[in-house]
User: What shape does this take?
Amino acid sequence: MAIKQLTVFVENKKGTVVSVTDILSKNNINLRALSIAETQDFGILRLIVNDHIAAEKVLSKNGYLIKVVDTVGVKIGDEPGKLTAALDVLDKADINVEYLYAFMARTEKHAYVVLRVEDNAVAEAVLTKAGFHMISESDIHKL
Assistant: This one.
């Protein structure tokens, strides 16, 4: 049930992010979530899109270095402590979260959280057992 994330390596300079988003928009690829981490010289742009195959193809064609990574998507209630509860489940199962980012869904009652962990299947199993709802690629396409 992994969510495909595009990791795009970009220079840390003016116009780089808009170049990526422009290429995607011109190819009818819709962003669902985005995160960027930077150093002085480069950035790591993480994207969840409606069509990861087309996005990878068009960005690669335009010279970007792309890595497709499987991530875990979990639906979190929009209340204080809900993210902590999910992270606590993973912590108690001895699962390290390498990074995470969140994005709002089209309802006011929850957000989606993207998690990068070592073993997606184990993380999904413990979260599901704890009552959390996992999200899939098909859920991303519906947004």
User: Anything to note?
Assistant: The chain has a mean pLDDT of 90. The first strand starts at residue 3 and ends at 11. The domain at 3-69 is CATH 3.30.2130.10 (VC0802-like). The two ends are 17 Å apart (CA to CA).
